[in-house]
Amino acid sequence: MSSLVGFLSLVFAIGINFYLFLSRYIFKFQKQKFNLFIRSASLLTLLSFFSLMYAYVVSDFSNYNVFQNSHSNKPLIYKISGTWGNHEGSMLLWLSILSIFSFFFSFTKNIDESFQRLTLIIQSLLHILFGLFIVFTSNPFLVNSILVNEGLGLNPILQDPGLAVHPPILYGGYVGYSIVFSIAIAGLFQNTDDEWLYVAKKWSLISWTFLTGGIALGSYWAYYELGWGGWWFWDPVENISLMPWIAGLALVHSLMMVRGEQAIKKWIVFLSILCFSLSVFGTFLVRSGILTSVHSFAADASRGIFILLIFFIVTGFGFLVFLLKEPKKSNALNLLFINKVSALVINNILMIIATLTILLGTIYPIIIEVLYNKRISVGGPYFNSTVIPIMIPGFLLMSIAPILSWQTNKINNSKKYVLAFIILSVLVLIQSYFLDFNAWGFVGLLLGFWIILASIIAILSSYKIKINIKFFKIINPHVAHIGVGIAIVGITCSSVFQNELDFNLSEGDKFNVNGKTVLFEKIETTNQINFQSLRGKFLFDIEKNQSKEIEAGKNYYPVSKMITSEAGILHQWNKDIYFILGDQKNNEWFVKVLINPFVSFIWLGVIIMIYSGLIAVTRR
Amino acid sequence: MNRIIILTPLIILLIICFFSLTYLLSGKDPNKPPSALLNKNVPSFESTSLYDTKEIIITTDIKNRKTLINFFASWCSPCKIEHPLFFEIGKKYPELYLLGFNHKDQTSDAKKYLEDDGNPYDFVGVDADGLIALEFGVFGLPETYLINEEGKIIFKFMGPITKDILKNEIEPLL
Fold it and tell me: CA-to-CA distance for A19 and A13, rounded, in angstroms?
């Protein structure tokens, strides 16, 4: 029953959007009526999504999708997240988020009515394309042809609270760019005043903030669930989320800096199209199953071709409109050796080069396999040695960019900055001399601390300190950059100064980690509701009264016959001690201990970035 | 010049779509990377029998006869699924030599597995440290190789073989 409701409301939603599209050419609507239709199409799409969710919650195995991906023993949260833990459901989530964005956009005030309408019609077109894709190739409402009373279970690796919320948030970013795309295209068609730039800024900030949160959740999940001790692997799926993130960062900066320059406006339109294109391209790569990873549920060529077609239409249409309708008036850029505009241009060039470098590394294996029938994989070494050096000048620049002037080359208080930079360099050099010197470590620490220090100097010397909301809005760009600086320090320390210790231990053994004694207490196996768990219990720092207990082990999921590893992590503010329980051999367990310094700084930096993204949304 | 710059995204789009489409239409399955070993000589190996450590098998032992090599383990559940098919193959093609490699397994577990589910192999070699699998380029268990009389690998399959694959891909080569 819920499947029928879901399917019908989906079809109706597509129908209404089609009707709205026709309305532009055939029947003209009043504003109220138009908004009513667009909102009801959005609500119908959501109804469709929630009826699928309902089928998951009540374990309605007459729905084929539920049967394939759920199990009645699962805890409620994983029944809910099971809705998007599969290809069909995740595409429906995609469409639902598109609808949510259209829904809220229809409430935007103070913008030209015909412009708003055109934007929403472009959204409707996107809805139709993806809606048809779902109905024809990925219908989540198929009825199970056999009567069953139990399902096949959700991929256990996805049964994790972090991962349950990761897809909706990430999609909030990916799909959010659809509205930025529609705004940009509508802006090209109507060529009205600059009001659309402010609207675009708000929505691109929202999307970018969601994307940041989604990526961070995904990498945090990889950190404690995959059990490899790292949090970023340059996995193709990570790369395709990073590309719209970097392009979106360039977009947000351009939008904040634009002051009516035509060249920058043109560039903003280009970036808006690029961001959404990269999002759709990412969806294509993952959903077609071209990339194998935890994200690809099934390889199916017909789906791949359909979604490639959508990608081709959307991107081709976007860039074609851009080519034909480019803004004509020219208004020269005020480029100086070092002022705000030149910093923005350099920053944008670097970000686009970085995006293209990642794009090349991501699609290179596909090209090679087509041409030479060879399987190669492009991984960390390529990206580390290309993307990071490209970004370094950008990081240097961002420390002072917010205080640069528009009109002149002069930097206020420049002596303070030079002095601070020299002192900092000496301090970092001394620090690296006493620890093991590592060039990357030195560069990373210097950059990270320099960004933090320069931003703090800028805040202290340029503004009067007041504790109120307005003040926080004014210093927000600096706060965002401090977040980046903190994240860079965390990234550098945790990757360059990571320490690995291997042990072979029996129960009751004591061993030494970082000068602290650790007791390998016992191995425990328990039966949980939907898995069996094997846990090694460790007591950290047993000489103290308050020793901390760490559990590391594996879970075995009988329904899908899979084993997942569960790392045991002791979080301290300055380091994570990361325990991985390996295999048993001759009554001895292989235990790997990783000491990851300053990992918490990465998450702290990300939280600050998300915070300032949210603040920036509220600022006009 | 300006035109060319603006056309660049469209050109890149066309290139990306061309390669992606070719990839999709070529019927490649990303789960099955092309094997560098196909149509090459079987890598040399030496392994002891699971049941008798004095009994060894080396590459030259499978010369001049068609051999089906299967990598399996007791801990590998998909192996259990394809297992019965090897009895069928053995019955239908008695002259085919069935060589099983027990991959990274405990001897006792492997013996129990073959006791419970039956032993279809003519010889079960031990590959405790996975070195033989490394030589063969095994990607994940189970994996099956067909070697012809000249000692060349003529077929490779990743994952559990099915009746369809047996009928459509392996039997024509036998």
Answer: 10
